[in-house]
Design a protein that fits this description.
The chain is of the alpha/beta class. It has 30 helices and 14 strands. The chain has a six-stranded mixed β-sheet, with helices on both faces. The protein has a six-stranded mixed β-sheet with strand order 9-14-10-13-12-11, sandwiched between helices. Helix 14 (254-267) links the parallel strand 5 and strand 6. The longest helix is centred in the N-terminal third of the chain and has 20 residues, at 29-48.
């Protein structure tokens, strides 16, 4: 070429292509015409092509300096950049063979670039810097030369940016991770994992270890990325993140993300105190097809296994791989990670702590409403942060902030298929009094015994409304422990194995928090296995039995259908507390308490009301709650006469329904 564009001498194409085409055309006239046309195209391309930006040429110069690319590697890279952007060159190359293998492609390039064949083969080797650093992507199938190798579009885009120095190249190509919004104390529940990763990463950087790969996985939004950023901030390690989109917002394909990762590894190869984060790792690890996914993981197809394995063994800089689901990962991949850690959903106390932190950072006043807003085990730090951001933008005031938070979190959880969050400690319409709960043990003695042991498995059983949940709340408060309440709707999962995972997670959460765990309607999980019709019903029972046996803490299980429980489950409970309807004296006591607390007049019962109350032998504390609400809704004044009449009506309704059974027993 008259002047050097990218080190590509197009004339040399003729030295290889001319005899090849003549041989194919059997020296006929059409072959000579084709050669003449090709020659014209090549020379026109050489004269016509001018780099679109001088910044691109300077960017390549700096890239050569940073990565130590040799002359042959540079010319190969420049040639394929030219292929990507020169229509004339592509037209010319269409006249070359269209089914090139690697050897043929190297031979053609050797002639085109006027370089020894060995130099070209080395430049295009899988161990070479061009492939290893993701500067070129190769196609193993027989294709044309311009399709055999591809320069990622993001590479050319970033090379075209004006650079002032080789250090400037690093900032252009690498996404420096932002500071973590959380600190170590915010991950107190993950302290063991946090410290383990910190100690290993520190040693790996100090000793210059290669092949260091750490895998963190868990549900979306639980804080995996924040943990990585926080660890690196603490250790003063520069963390760089593999991008997932370009500057215009276009999403990178998996192959482009891998190229970016390889390129990042190469750029940082000699930079100590650095690490790389690859988020959304599911993008690049081969996914099994539908039929493959039905097989056990150890029997799934190999795909690019050997290439991925080598990727995880040869990286110079420590790499964090973060994903939401690793079920599809081949066992051979998992074995190559130094650390594999699951980040569970945050506990109740951690959710409150994170919410309080985010609100404080945004300057949003709470005055204690955090303890009263709805809570859900599915509220992750990511969801909490987004909700707080909306609250800050709208600025609804202190009173409106709590309602808006409830609405925002409820809407997103509903969209995700979860039940709307519930208020942690919903205030009762009447004050709780353990003396009006009719049980076969003394509540005070029970509380003292649990407090002494700090380890108990208790079953509360009896009719609805008899006070099982309220007594559990009272016990937790007396023990000065947080209470974690889970209903079947919180734990049952539509996917096979999901319920078992949820059960294991809630027991782990309760143990970490030192909380009292209340499983409401436990008959949904512990129904006798003899009546099971499906295998997953049995596995759910088995899982819960295992968790109950291993649990180190206070567990309270509640049921309205004692007769349906599995026989083996009964043996797992230390104490079985029977709840019955209130006695006559308890009815009279609660009757007076309600009037004294809520009524317009003090409790003054006459002999007639005393006799009427004495005949009500099927009332529960729950019935009192129900009739108070009914009186309020209907606008009736709360008085001894109205309350007594309402309780009689409630008792009469229960008598009509007597014998129909409760819950599952209604169908037996």
């Amino acid at each position: 070429m008259g002047g050097r564009s990218y080190g590509v001498n197009l004339r040399f194409i003729m030295d290889f292509v001319a005899p090849h085409l003549v041989e194919e055309m059997d020296n006929d006239e059409s072959g000579k015409i084709t050669l003449s046309a090709l020659k014209s195209i090549l020379f026109d391309a050489e004269l016509d092509f001018v780099p679109e930006s001088t910044a691109l040429g300077f960017g390549i110069d700096l890239l050569v300096e940073v990565l130590g690319i040799n002359a042959a590697e540079r010319e190969v890279l420049e040639f394929f950049i030219l292929c990507k952007y020169s229509r004339m060159l592509n037209d010319a190359l269409e006249l070359t063979p269209q089914n090139l293998d690697m050897a043929s492609a190297c031979s053609i390039l050797s002639v085109i670039l006027n370089r020894p064949l060995q130099a070209i083969e080395n430049a295009l080797s899988s161990d070479g810097i061009l492939i290893n650093a993701g500067l070129l992507e190769s196609d193993g199938h027989p294709v044309s030369l311009e399709r055999k190798f591809n320069v990622p579009g993001q590479l050319v885009d970033k090379l075209s940016v004006a650079h002032s120095s080789s250090l400037d190249v690093l900032d252009t190509f690498l996404n420096r991770a932002p500071e973590s919004v959380l600190v170590r104390e915010d991950f107190a529940e993950h302290a063991d994992s946090f410290d383990l990763v910190s100690e290993y990463l520190s040693a790996a950087v100090r000793d210059g270890l290669s092949g260091v790969n750490i895998l963190l996985y868990g549900a979306p939004g639980v804080g995996k990325t924040q943990i990585v950023r926080c660890i690196c901030n603490t250790l003063r390690i520069d963390l760089f993140e593999v991008p997932d989109q370009d500057k215009e917002g276009g999403v990178y394909a998996p192959a482009e993300r891998l190229s970016a990762y390889l390129f990042s590894q190469k750029l940082l190869e000699n930079k100590s105190d650095t690490a790389i984060l690859f988020d959304e790792m599911e993008d690049v690890f081969p996914q099994p097809d539908f039929f493959d996914s039905m097989r056990p993981r150890r029997m799934r197809t190999k795909g690019r296994k050997s290439w991925i394995n080598r990727l995880l063994e040869t990286n110079k800089r420590p790499a964090f791989w973060v994903g939401n689901n690793i079920d599809h990962l081949d066992l051979a991949y998992l074995r190559r990670f130094d650390l594999v850690l699951e980040i569970p959903k945050p506990s109740q106390s951690m959710r409150k702590r994170i919410l309080n932190k985010f609100l404080a950072e945004k300057g949003i006043e709470t005055n204690g409403w955090i303890g009263r807003v709805p809570d859900s085990p599915h509220l992750t730090p990511g969801l909490i942060e987004k909700s707080v951001r909306v609250i800050q933008a709208i600025n609804p005031g202190e009173a409106g902030a709590a309602q808006l938070y409830k609405r925002l979190t409820g809407n997103v959880l509903k969209a995700m298929g979860y039940q709307a969050p519930t208020v942690p400690d919903k205030e009762s319409v009447i004050s709780y009094d353990p003396e009006v709960i009719n049980i076969d043990v003394d509540p005070t003695t029970l509380t003292r015994g649990i407090s002494d042991m700090q380890d108990a498995r208790i079953l509360f059983y009896g009719a609805p409304g008899t006070g099982k949940t309220e007594l559990a709340r009272h016990l937790a408060k007396s023990l000065e422990k947080p209470l974690i309440v889970r209903k079947p709707s919180d734990l049952l999962d539509k996917f096979l194995g999901g319920t078992e995972k949820n059960l294991a997670a809630v027991f782990e959460e309760a143990e970490q928090e030192g909380a009292v765990l209340l499983l409401d309607e436990v008959d949904s999980f512990l129904m006798t296995r003899a009546a099971a019709h499906r295998s997953w019903e049995i596995t759910q029972v088995n899982e819960l039995l295992v968790q109950i046996e291993a649990f180190k803490g206070v567990l309270i299980a509640c049921t309205n259908a004692m007769s349906l429980l599995d026989e083996a489950a009964m043996r797992r409970f230390d104490v079985k507390v029977r709840f019955e309807c209130m006695s006559a004296s308890q009815v009279r006591k609660l009757f007076c308490q309600v009037l004294n607390q809520l009524g317009s007049e003090a409790c003054e019962t006459n002999s007639l009301i005393e006799r009427r109350l004495g005949r009500l032998d099927s009332l529960t504390p729950g019935d009192f709650h129900a009739v108070i609400r009914r009186l309020r809704i209907t606008g009736l004044e709360l008085s001894p006469q109205s309350l007594c009449a309402a309780l009689e009506q409630e008792s009469s309704k229960k008598a009509e329904n007597k014998g129909r059974g409760i819950g599952f027993s209604a169908h037996l």
